[in-house]
Amino acid sequence: MNQINRIRTIEVTKDIYAVITPAAGLDITDAGMMDNFSNSAYINRGEGLICDTFFDLPHARDLRDFCVKQSGHAPKYVINTHGHWDHFWGNQVNFDKLGIKGSPTAELVFNNAPALLIGDRRMGLIKYVMSLMNGARLGVGAQSVGLAEAAYREALEYAKQREQFGKAIIRFPQVYEMLGTMKAKIDATRSLLYETTRFVDLYKTYDSISKERQLTSEERQDMKYSQRCADMMTPMLKLFASEYANQVAYDSIQVHGGSGFMKEYKCERLYRDARILSIYEGTSQLQVVAAIRFIGNGAYLKRIEEYEAMPLDESLMPLRSRIDKMKESYLKIVETADKFGTTSEAYDFLARRMVEAMGHLIMSHLLLQDCNRSMESGNCNFMNSCKIMIALGEAEIAKILTFVENFKEEDLQMYN
Fold it and tell me: Of 71, 63, 74, which Cα lies nearest the Cα of 110?
């Protein structure tokens, strides 16, 4: 920031982000941060916020003086250019975390602090926060793919160099199976990431155009479709990319053996950094809650039918047939779960299994299309990953089907 008075504008949201109180957790509606919605509002919750920040103010003390001059209040903590907390009053707080230590996380405590209401009333949660969270989840999906790729490369390089029993460990089936599965999961989630961001780009582009001119009927329809697809793909991306990143980081350490447990190897840090991915910006369990409604209304299934209608090289049809059989099993899973009633506790209990089965279908189709496109260009870099993910999907969906078909509502008592 070049001018300190820019702190008063909405641009501050680019530098500091805080939405959740420790007491409210994921229930944002219970945050209770704003006590008075008048023009001179005050944030009046003493518990504070957990906040990841990249706040860069060259003149932190000037900010304190500015706030005192404007409102009579000084901020409790401000981060300076070196990433340390300047202590104005109160106790210093900076959490010592398991991972992502390069991003400082701290508690912000507000007590009768002046605040400005930005945007329209009653739109904060249903529009602004949800839009913010979807964007953040997209970012975490990309972060997860990047971390998984880094962990895979560390494992691959180590497996090529490390020798046991007279040969590199990458030549042992137990090791190259892990490496092949790691790469397949990364290719699958990267394809899912590109698919999701494509829909987001289309929606955002139409939205930007609509501010300059009126959209045609066809453009409005395409914009709504893109937004709907972005909404349903985002939780699927966040769920699978973050979970796979944890699995890949875990396997990366396994490939390294005892050396991977030492801090001198990068895989140790990647393993710690990966753990937050399935937690922040909405846990994996919350992504299931967001995704399950698209199972119920058939939106995912409609997208699968669109994949099926896409042209495909004749040599790939046997793989398509295997995916079609996976779809048949998926339909049986949903049909069986529906018998409990979509509002029942049993249906909620089975929700993750339905979402995961659909996720395998989507990723299998995406990799199959990747194979089709790469064959047109004279190579097929995705063939192995496609075959591995289809095999993995077949096994996982068969397992899910067996569980769901044998599940009884009274079984809930075993877990509760």
Answer: 74
Picking from 347, 337, 202, the residue whose alpha carbon sits closest to that of residue 289 is 347
- Between the alpha carbon of residue 145 and those of residues 139, 221, 271, 283, 371, the distances in Å are 10, 31, 13, 17, 19
pLDDT digits (tens, 9 = 90+) for 237-273: 999 999 999 999 999 999 999 999 999 999 999 999 9
Instruction: Give which of 303, 314, 313 is closest to 373, Cα–Cα.
Output: 313
- The residues annotated as belonging to the active site are 281
Does the pLDDT at position 55 exceed 50? no
pLDDT for position 82: 39
CA-to-CA dists, residue 329 to 126, 142, 165, 304, 340, angstroms = 35, 30, 44, 14, 18
**Cα dihedral: 367, 372, 376, 381 (round 10):** 30
* Measured distance CA(294)–CA(270) in Å, rounded: 33
CA-CA distance, 245 to 239, in Å (whole number)?
Answer: 10
Helix 345-376 to helix 217-256 angle, to the nearest 10 degrees? Answer: 90
Between CA 188 and CA 244 the distance in angstroms is: 10
Which of 107, 185, 159 lies closest to 384, judged by CA? 185
Burial class (CB in 10 A: 0-12, 13-18, 19+), 152: buried
Q: Find the DSSP H helices in 211-344.
A: 217-256, 266-274, 284-296, 299-308, 317-338
Whole-angstrom distance between the N-terminal and C-terminal Cα of the chain?
52
| Global pTM value | 0.84
